[in-house]
Amino acid sequence: MIQTPHSKTGTRPQVILNMAMTADGKTASANRQIHAFGSSRDQRHLYKLRSTADAILCGSRTVEISRALLDNGGNCFTRARISRGLAAHPLRIIVSGSGSINPGAPIFQHSFSPILLITTRRISGAKKRVLSPLFEGMFISPGSNLDFHAAFRWLRDKWKVRRMVCEGGAELNAALFASDLVDELHLTICPLIMGGNQASTIADGKNGFTLEQAKLFKMTSCRAVGEELFTTYTRLPSD
Ligand SMILES: NC(=O)c1ccc[n+]([C@@H]2O[C@H](COP(=O)([O-])OP(=O)(O)OC[C@H]3O[C@@H](n4cnc5c(N)ncnc54)[C@H](OP(=O)(O)O)[C@@H]3O)[C@@H](O)[C@H]2O)c1
After folding, report:
1. DSSP 3-state helix, strand, coil percentages of the chain (rounded to 5)?
2. Strands, sheet with 217-225, edge to edge from the N-terminal-most edge strand
3. Which atom of ligand 1 sits closest to the CA of residue 35?
4. Smallest Cα–Cα separation from 168: which of 26, 31, 44, 10?
5. Where are the domains of the chain?
6. Residue 173 CA: which ligand 1 atom is closest?
7. Could you tell me which of 175, 187, 188, 172 has the C-alpha nearest to residue 217?
């Protein structure tokens, strides 16, 4: 089920993570070049989810490799957004701790909505100068590690983001899970096996969680449509 916009999270946006994965749990091949394997129905699911959100959040590698524009999906989704009181297009937010995003990426050639950058003090002055004209806003986290809680408060306070869809990839997802910032997970399980121990999963990153630290979710829906399984999970309270 796709919920309409609301925030139950107070000082930060509600975060919905949407990913497609193979039956063996992979979200992209080891070299990251195979990443689109969902059906057109899954693509529509993504657009429907986007149409409930103020913003879309993505890691810099996903934006570059998938050449994503993070658009609203076309006229019928524009209408759905407007009927929900949202802007015609979602804000587009890129996470790049070192500012390594390519300024020639296709997303920067389309100006239908503001693009924001979430980065850290690791970004060099030169990169900041190159990237500044491409972004309407920049959150620079103090220190070398990104403080997602602070970044998300900034999104809520300055950009009025109440509900945000995160579309990966695995490195960004891992950081969000570690910061306990994922409220809802939409996972489409697709009928193929990719294999490969370097292929990405839902949440990569250097260290996983112990069983005690594992983030617990409750399945709230599970629907087989065609060859795919559309599942939804909600975060359970951590204590
Ligand atoms: N199957 C699916 O549903 C799905 C969904 C999304 C993506 N994908 C695929 O997954 C692949 C990309 O995933 P990925 O895991 O390699 O990369 P990613 O998470 O998209 O992006 C990684 C980059 O994001 C920035 N980043 C992420 N976490 C950060 C943190 N905690 N602090 C600072 N910066 C952070 C860093 O940028 P800088 O290096 O610039 O600092 C990092 O190099 C692509 O092939 C994509 O198409 C698949």
Report:
1. 25, 25, 50
2. 137-141, 115-120, 91-95, 55-59, 163-166, 14-22, 184-190, 228-235, 217-225
3. 47
4. 26
5. 14-235
6. 19
7. 187
Taking only the tens place, the pLDDT of each residue in 62-101 is 999 999 999 999 999 999 999 999 999 999 999 999 999 9
pLDDT in tens, 103-145: 999 999 999 999 999 999 999 999 999 999 999 999 999 988 9
- In angstroms, what is the C-alpha Rg of the chain? 17
- The pTM assigned to this predicted structure is 0.95
Tokens of 165: 């869809």
> Measured in angstroms, how far is the CA atom of residue 85 from the centroid of ligand 1?
30
The domain covering 14-235 belongs, at the CATH homologous superfamily level, to Dihydrofolate Reductase, subunit A (3.40.430.10)
**C-alpha distances in Å from residue 199, one per residue of 28, 95, 147, 148, 207:** 6, 21, 27, 25, 16
